[in-house]
Amino acid sequence: MTADIPTNGIDFDVRVRDLLEEYGDPQACAAELLCDRHPADAVAFTLVEPNLSAKDITYGELRDKSRIFAAALADLGVEQGDAVGVLMGKSEALVVALLGIWRRGAVHVPLFTAFAAPAIALRLTASEAKVVIVDEDQKPKLAPSEDMPDGDWTTVVVGAVADGERSFSELMASYDVDSPGNEACITGGDAPLILLFTSGTTGVPKGVPIPVRALASIHSYLEFAVDLRRSDTFWNAADPGWAYGLFYAIAGPLAIGQPSILLHAGFSPALSWAVMDKFGVTNFAGAPTVYRALRNDPTPIPEGVSLRRASSAGEPLTPDVITWAQEKLGTTVRDHYGQTEQGMMICNCWADGLREDVRPGSMGRPIPGWAPKYSSTAPTRSRLPEPPAGLPSTRRRAR
């Protein structure tokens, strides 16, 4: 993994420039940036089961398995720029699938596992997905109905399959690391990596193309705002079906080469305390609802819980949670703000040289590299620019 970058006294403008050059390079390759450049024996994730058994997943394993899955995607007709929907929980198969998609130069379309069929159908049809990868327990949502069209996408199931479906495990067993189509595509920094749809709170959800170069922003957030260090045991509890979990629990740690926790289970306060205690989590991130649930849980906080840093995003952080964390956890929960379209950009940063006293109710200050400006005129659709050529919109596919 990359070494710590000391932030106290560094020139943040230079650091931002370096990250933009790294991830925006015309020869940028997502598979290289997120996997292949890291030592093969370095741990990428510790996959934790509900019973607290755990398995380390190395970059070497992810490299080989994602090469196999990329070859399978190639045989399924997935080409560079094609959209691939993913309706999966947190698991090793999820990470393999994502890296296989990106190795192929395809575009990941996140599908939150709590979505009902209409929300899934909107994203699959608007992105013109060629393949959808789904956990077996989520498969009923894809059954043709008045809410779900009988799409022309290929369905790959992690688990038992029915007629017309493809088995993830059988695909992985049918190819090897040298099969054709496993090559890591050089796409450049402007190529799409993810097509993430907005939540739709202000209208019909819209597809936001996230290019490879956005990894510069994702990397800088973990470095500047979260203060992620090589010595940390990091756990971002957010779901990868949305931006905060996908960007900062999966893609960001992969880009940095930072080992992190991946919990193969739904959220529960008691299990969260147990994970923090057993695995020595020192740097934790989650939504305010997570912190409130932890605060309200009657489970005694284990003596082994010792957080160096705690961060929050997704909704405003209330003062009572900040006070509770200071009294019970010995650290401050720092509020961070971002959007689907930009990622995290205004934060109460943790890093040396950026850290200030927290003012309850304040989002903080812009992260280096961001310069928000006030506009008295709201943009309208007619004034919004078209996506650059090669980036998918809700109606145009990249080629």
Automatic annotation (TrEMBL):
<comment type="similarity">
    <text>Belongs to the ATP-dependent AMP-binding enzyme family.</text>
</comment>
<feature type="domain" description="AMP-dependent synthetase/ligase">
    <location>
        <begin position="36"/>
        <end position="370"/>
    </location>
</feature>
<dbReference type="InterPro" id="IPR020845">
    <property type="entry name" value="AMP-binding_CS"/>
</dbReference>
<feature type="region of interest" description="Disordered">
    <location>
        <begin position="360"/>
        <end position="399"/>
    </location>
</feature>
<keyword id="KW-0067">ATP-binding</keyword>
<dbReference type="InterPro" id="IPR000873">
    <property type="entry name" value="AMP-dep_synth/lig_dom"/>
</dbReference>
<keyword id="KW-0436">Ligase</keyword>
<protein>
    <submittedName>
        <fullName>AMP-binding enzyme</fullName>
    </submittedName>
</protein>
<dbReference type="GO" id="GO:0006633">
    <property type="term" value="P:fatty acid biosynthetic process"/>
</dbReference>
<dbReference type="GO" id="GO:0004321">
    <property type="term" value="F:fatty-acyl-CoA synthase activity"/>
</dbReference>
<dbReference type="Pfam" id="PF00501">
    <property type="entry name" value="AMP-binding"/>
</dbReference>
<dbReference type="GO" id="GO:0005524">
    <property type="term" value="F:ATP binding"/>
</dbReference>
<keyword id="KW-0547">Nucleotide-binding</keyword>
<dbReference type="InterPro" id="IPR051087">
    <property type="entry name" value="Mitochondrial_ACSM"/>
</dbReference>
<dbReference type="GO" id="GO:0006637">
    <property type="term" value="P:acyl-CoA metabolic process"/>
</dbReference>
<dbReference type="GO" id="GO:0015645">
    <property type="term" value="F:fatty acid ligase activity"/>
</dbReference>
<dbReference type="InterPro" id="IPR042099">
    <property type="entry name" value="ANL_N_sf"/>
</dbReference>
